[in-house]
Amino acid sequence: MKIGFIGLGNMGAPMAANLAMAGHEVTGFDTADVSVEGVAKAASAKEAASGAEVVLTMLPNGAILRKVAEELIPAMPTGATLIDCSTVDVDSARAVGEMAEGAGIMFVDAPVSGGVGGAAGGTLTFMAGGSEAAFAKAQPLFEIMGQKAVHCGAAGAGQAAKICNNMILGVTMIATCEAFALADKLGLDRQKMFDVVSTSSGYSWSMNAYCPAPGVGPQSPADNGYKPGFAADLMLKDLRLSQQAAESADADTPMGALAQTLYEMFVEQEDGAGRDFSAMLPRFETRGRG
Ligand code: NAD
């Protein structure tokens, strides 16, 4: 298949490489002059898109996605498919979906989870929104770049699923970290805390699979000095997107709002920038109620 790939950053580059390695003819474009093995270089997004059966985008945010989409959609052949894998706001995903549809292009919003490791290993999970036909077109590519793809509904549904999931993740990580810090102050051993909670009703992915306490539970960024993993900065981005969506849909999300405030303080005023999002535990450790 002739594929255009726009945005060859930490995630996009390995995803494009995996598509090329699987035998597809991939032409890529990034504003930073990036070379990716097996991927031909185009001089613009438009050039990468022209004549492509499928175009994928993996970009930083909704504003950039909208701008790039305006440029590449007119260059795509009618009946082609645009797959956006970036994490962006639901409104931008829907707007680009409409823009594509108006031009006779199929659209799938397909944000991912699995991070840079998942992108390199071809083990990402895709949460997809779009028509049945668009999803069917995208699925063989999802199978190359990932291990699971869930069709969540119409355009925008993939982004909706992603930000709802990550809102839960931000909230449960904070709850898990503050509970560990409280347990410390109550003289409870961290291993005992893990043994109880991970098999009791307080368990979650944050505790059981990504334990924020070093030396406890399975290997996690806590065991590596809180090097990301999933950076607190990216968690903040996703929490902001979920609050933006909640505003737009008039949904009451007090815990999500508080999680956003805490990650904002951590990343912008404290030492959270560039650290894993589970480094909330050392943050709480050093604090009292004042
Ligand atoms: P990144 O900053 O490494 O890559 C983005 C790339 O887009 C950069 O190389 C940049 O030069 C390029 N770019 C910016 N504007 C452009 C334009 N107008 N035309 C062409 N290229 C342009 O970011 P990333 O980590 O690869 O993340 C990409 C997306 O994936 C983001 O939306 C992010 O939220 C999401 N995501 C990231 C992770 C992760 O762990 N890194 C996990 C899940 C989802």
Task: List the defining traits of the structure above.
290 residues; alpha/beta; binds nicotinamide-adenine-dinucleotide; three-stranded mixed sheet
Q: How would you portray this structure in words?
A:
The protein has 290 residues and is an alpha/beta fold. Helix content is 48%, strand content 14%. The protein has helices at residues 12-21, 45-49, 62-72, 90-102, 115-121, 132-145, 157-185, 190-197, 205-208, 232-249, 254-268, 280-285; strands spanning 2-6, 25-29, 40-41, 54-57, 81-84, 106-109, 112-113, 124-129, 146-153. It has a six-stranded parallel sheet with strand order 3-2-1-4-5-6, with helices on both faces. It has a three-stranded mixed sheet with strand order 7-8-9. β8 (124-129), α6 (132-145) and β9 form a beta-alpha-beta unit. α1 (12-21) runs parallel beside α5 (115-121), α7 packs across α11 and α10 (232-249) runs antiparallel to α11. The longest helix has 29 residues, at 157-185. The mean pLDDT is 97. It binds nicotinamide-adenine-dinucleotide. Nicotinamide-adenine-dinucleotide is lined by residues 6-12, 29-32, 45, 58-60, 64, 68, 86-87, 112, 115-116, 234, 237.
